[in-house]
FAD binding domain-containing protein
Amino acid sequence: MDLNTIEAVVPTTDPADWRDGDAWLAGGTVLFSYGAYAFGPRPLRRLLDLGRAGWPAVTVDDDGIELAATCTIAELYALPGSEPVAGRDWPGLELIRPCCDSFVASFKIWNLSTVGGNICTSLPAGPMTSLCAGLDGVATVIGADGAARTVPVAEFVTGDARNCLGPGELLRSIRIPAAALASKVAFRRLSLSNLGRSGALLIGRLGPRNDADGARGQLVLTVTASTRRPVQLRFPADAAPDADRLAAAVVQSIPAELYHDDQHGLPEWRRDMTLRLAEELRAELLGEHGPDGTFAVSGDFWECPDGTGRAHARSAQPTTQSSPRPNARPSAQPPTTQPIHRKEA
């Protein structure tokens, strides 16, 4: 929290107030830990505080969900059990809590850290980037002239701690469409250590069947954490891939240099785990279980749909978990690369 160069904290949501030496302040969990030289050799001079923005954290309508950039992780975690989404056939909501848990953070972080802040930090392992990209979220960005533009979250992050924002631009909100929320979803996350930073986090989505002919929807695979930026693979509804075709598509879509390299995983390991988890997602979404009627599930934070096997491993944050699942319990084993198996629901 070494920010001894700050001369003023300015409550504002207007990008026109931004000037060189400023930084937008939301929850501050990253900004305060990075210090005054977080963004280069020149120190920060002012913080533009979004704390009084007054934006509704979550807005739900028939077209989908809008998340304010200032929505906290605690507020997002509470959404699946809340009244605004009650009765909606949105399986995509099942991704919210595993992605929140992927912070592997205390309730103090959950109650301050924001959806927009995590996306704007743009780390490969940012779980809000994973969630919003995996559900085809679209970010609204406001410039200094007041003009707004939109960009898919899958394209918002351009590299490790790099994104599409220009000087002074402000991430206002993320819109998640109802069509993506209506899809069948699956989640996989792996780390080198028990409850460590994500080394690979993949989200799979299968569109609902066509009411007219019963045909499957589009299969979408979103790769994050293992790569420096999100990578999406889309397969047409009438051309769902088999295991070999999926592996070939992953290899073709992700060049070796795009895999992230740090103490949380070597590129070679991340590549191998990406291929493994991608196949697990494909098999689960398409219902291609093994001869024993089970699916392979590597990693943590994904609950067996039939209630058997390892339950949804959650961070032990009672202050943020307003509607805990009755069979939820923390994982007692490290998320090794040895898969568990679950029966088809």
Residues 8-49 form one domain. The mean pLDDT is 87.
